[in-house]
Task: structure prediction
Amino acid sequence: MTLGINHIVSDADTCFGKPRIAGTRFAVKDVVAYHYFQKMSVEEIASDWNLPIAAVYAALAYYHDHKIEIDRVFEQEDALIRDLKSGKLSLQEAFQD
Result:
């Protein structure tokens, strides 16, 4: 017997295709930010956002399996914020297609 529990999903129609906790719009990247940068425990994250603890652990496991890719997103977002704050880039320039 095989039991499959898919806590992490990704589809183009939700959260711009970013990996997220199934049944929510809570992105894996957000779990990582709260846990590693804000120093929130898994239990705090689960409780504050009404998420299953297993799903929060799954998000952290997903991060470690895809660390380079997700860290690159953090770096790109940090660079965008720096450019906006310094005036190198306007909001209009940052979000035009």
User: Anything to note?
Assistant: The CA atoms of residues 84 and 90 lie 6 Å apart. The first strand starts at residue 8 and ends at 9. The two ends are 48 Å apart (CA to CA).
